[in-house]
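Question thread 4412

I'm putting together a teaching handout and wanted feedback from people who do this every day. The idea is simple: show students a protein as raw sequence, then show them the structure tokens that encode its fold, then repeat with a second protein so they can compare. Below is the first pair exactly as I plan to print it.
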Amino acid sequence: MKELTLYDINKELEEVIANAVNDETGEVNPVAEAKLEQLQQDKVAKVVNVGLYIKNVEATASAIRDEEKRLAARRKVMENRAKWLREYLSRNLDGEKIEQANIRISFRKSESVEIGPFADLAAIAKKHPQLIRIEYKPQKLDIAAFIKTTGVSFEDIRIIEKQNIQIK
């Protein structure tokens, strides 16, 4: 027998409830009452099983996230070590080329833009707007607090109430 889904259980519950009472006598059919009880138990069992499965999936995701953090920290250590060693070689070679059978170390010229702490980016943006990008990022928590405390509303911004499921 195929295991019922929550959708199937709810559908059967509706059917049993619709046919549980005898229209002529008004009595509740004992078979329908037993079926209703069984479907309610099946529904609770299914909901509990799905909830436990969600907890298991979330625990696995959390373990993966923790491992990602550990690996990212390890990667960062390796990247920093490689950067330091690269700078160490650069300082000690001072532009000198080294070529062996298994490695070739050389230097090439490059350019980069360095922006100092006192650069007037606002003035540059005014004269040359294509050079400075300004990004707007809404602070949703601050907006919600502002709307709640002041009652001021903005076009196409609203606070919506949600039902978030909690599984513990």
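The second pair follows. I'd like the answer to focus on this one:
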Amino acid sequence: MKTLRMYCSIIFITIFSINAKIIETNNFEIISQYADKDTLVLFDIDNTLARPESELGSDEWFCYMIDQKIAHGYDKSSAMTAVLPLSYYALFNVPLVVTDLIVPVLLKNLTTRGIYTMGLTSRGPFLAERTYDQLINIDINFMMPPSATETALQLENPLLYKYAILFVGNNDKGDALLLFLDTIGYHPSSIIFIDDKMSHVQSVEKAAISRNINYIGIRYSGCDTYINHFDPAKADMQLHQLQQKNRKPAQQYKNSTPTNALSCWYYYLLLFLIASLVFVLLSQFFFKPHRKHRK
């Protein structure tokens, strides 16, 4: 009985010695109040740090397309397979803007203070290069310890760490984070994670508690208006306009190629005829036979 009480006391002390809480806010400045040099600050990307200016390419557009496929009889995995090519098409054509002008400033300040920062995104490994370009263009940079080098990992699905961003894909963010931290041998005393989806915030909370890491989860609400007022018809129109823009030059080239080729042949034929005429005239001038004078 005494052993059981002691065991329960140890569990009680362990649980309540870990400080874990979740906050909902649209204010990034709150991060600076909690972060110190022993803190790892994690940022979701889409609808947290950045978003497209248009409906097209947004996270809510992607989720809408998945839901549409499921409504037509697809399971979730098949729906993802069907939607991802179009999603990639949009993401490779649509730039991002910051959700708040303070974001680049905040990241630079955290770096200056020696606080490690990292992206933790549901984007898959195949979007690593495009994501990096999009973020660099809006002055978003992260900083991680030197031990964190490019790493490809495997859970239920592949994941990739590159450019101080963990591309989780369709894996659980909490599980992916623990696997990555174990792989590089880095275990912070506290974690701050900001994401627009509560499910991800709670997933990372569960992971942090399992490793006795203090945790502050921030459910970012700054993009809720965009999410709640998503217009599928507008997104369809934007997609159509993008496709027309990308396909029009190819059509113009296709239509103009025969004419251009014909014009080239006329040009070369004309040059040949002119050269032949010049040759004939010069030949007559220089090679004209001399007539003998009669006596």
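Top answer:
Good format. For the second protein you could add a caption like this: The chain is about 50% helix and 15% strand. Residues 54-94 form one domain.
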